[in-house]
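Report of the visiting student (M.T.), summer placement. My assignment was to run the structure pipeline on a short list of targets and document each run. The first record concerns DUF4185 domain-containing protein.
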Amino acid sequence: MSMPRKTLRRAVVAALAAVVALVPAPALAEIPPDHAEDHNTAFTNSDGDLWASCESDDGALYAANGDGTGFDLGHSFDPKTEDIVVNRIVGTPYLTPSRTGLTGRVVTRGGNQAGTPGTSVGRVWSDIRHYNRKPTGMLCVDRTLYLAVQDLRRDFSAAPAATILRSTDHGRTWHWDDSEPMFGVRDLSDPPSNPKAAFTTIFFLDYGRDSVNAPDPGVVYAYGLDDNWAGRSQLHLARIPKNSIQDRSTWQWSNGPGTWTAPGDLQGRVPVINDDSLPPGHISQGSVVYDKPLNRYLYSSWNEEFWVFYEAPTPWGPWTRLMTKNFLTKCFDRGRARWNAGYHGGYATTIPSKYISSDGRTMWVQSNVFFTDDQCPSPEPKNLGSYSFALRKLWLTTPDNLVRDPGFEGQRQFNFFGLPAPLGPVEAPWTTEGPDVKGIDVGTALPRQGTKNAWIHPANQQTRAWNAITQDVPVRQHTRYVLTGYVQTSANLTEGYFGVRAGQNVISETKFGPLGPYTRLSVTFDSGANDKVKLFTGYWAPGQDSWLRLDDTAIAPA
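After the run finished, the C-alpha cells were exported:
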C-alpha cells in the first residue's frame, strides 16, 4: 500500500530538516583558558556530586546527584540509600544572588541498593560491599526521563556494569529490565576482580528542553566510556531509536564519520574521539550539549587538574580541542593546599542546555570539588561550596567575533526577594571604569536586539568624570582588526570615545557626540606587538543628567 501524499510530504520535510540541521557550521575559535571562570560563582543549597541533568517538558531541570542528600540538607547523609538522589531544579543562574535564583527539591532518593523496579532508583548489580550506584547521564524526551546508572567501585577504579532507567512521572518512580545489566557484567567476586567493561559510563546528547532541538526526532544519541568513569582516551557514540532506548539490540555505534554498525554490534564501533595526548586521561564522564544558536556540539571533559573541552559540527565529529585549562594540582605538597575558594578545578563537568544564553555564547559549567584530610589541608570552607550543584561561566567566541558576551546576553539580573528586576550589574567578562553608575537593562524595550544591553547613567548629575564599559580581548600580534559596536546616547553628550587601548595607550579610537537611535561605530586597528587589547566605550560626563547605551560589539579580522 502506498503512503498517503500528505504523510509522504511530512516525512520528506522532516528528513530534509534533519539533514539541514546537521550541515556543519563554521568552527568556533580556540578559546583561551581565561574564557572559563576560575571558580564556581553560582551556588545552591544542595549536597552531592555528578549532577547528570536534562530539562524536561515542564521547564524544570532534573538532575541526579551521587553521594549526597541533594536538595535536602535537613538530615544526615545515608550512604546506603543516597548514593543516588533525583532532584528537580527551577530558576536560573542568570539571577543574582544565585542561591535565591536557583532552587530545588528532592524528587526521590535511591532507596535499597538491591532494589527492584518501581521501588528504587536502579540497583547495584555487583557486590554491594565494593560498589555504589552512580548516575552518569540523563535524557529528557517525550515527557519521559531516562537515567544511566553504573556500578562504580568504591575506590573509583572500575565500572563493570550499567543500565538505563525510565521514568514517566518526572522522576518519582523508575523502571528497567531487572534480569541483567544492559552493558558490562556483574562483579560478584571478593576481593573485586575489576572485569573489563565496554560502554558502562553513558551520557546522552542534550538537545534542549524535552529534546526539542533534535534534528531527527526519532533518534537519540548516547556517548560512552569503557572500563571506568574517568581517565580514558577514547569516547564512543551510539545512535538509538527513541522508542527503544532500553533495548540494547536496537543500538547502533559510530564506526566512521556518519556511518553506523548494524544494530546491537557493540564490537564494531570506532571511537569518535581518541585523545592520548599527555598528560593522559582527558576523556571522562561529562556532557555533550548542542549549542543551537551556534549550531555546534560541545563535549566538556576533565581529569580534575585539567579541563579539556572539545567541539564538533555533528554528533560524530570531527571533534577538535576547543580549550584546555590547567588548574594545577590541589596541593603544592601534603602540607599546603593550592586550590582555594577563588581558584579550583573540578570533576564531572556538565553544561546544561537550559542555561545557554540566547546567543549561544555564554553558558554555565557544573563541576564538583571535594577535599579529604589525607589529600592536603582543607581550605575553608572545606568543600569550597562546590560539592553541590554549583556553576561557573564559560564564554565562547567565534573567528568573526573575538569579544566575549558581545551582546550582554550572558549578564545577570538582580533578584530581590524572588522577584527579578529589569536590570542587573555589569559583570565578567565585562569591566568598568569611573566612579559613576553602570548596569544592564534586562527584558525591556531598550536593547538594540536580544534581551539585554549595557548602560552608563551617573546618579550624580553634576559629575564630569570619565566612565566606560570595557573588556580585555585576546588578539594575534601584528594583525589588523575591525572593532564595531552600537551606541545610543542622551542629546547632551559631546565627549564620547569608542576604541581599543594597550594598557593606558590608545591604539585607535573614534570620538562621538549625541547619538539618537543606536548608531554603528567602527574603528580599524593594528594589534602591533600586543596579544591583548582593551575595548572601551565611554564618555566624559557633561555636568548634567546624561546617559549612554551599548549593545552588539565585535572585534573581527579586517
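The radius of gyration is 25 Å. Helices lie at 5-21, 98-101. I thank the supervising group for their guidance throughout the placement.
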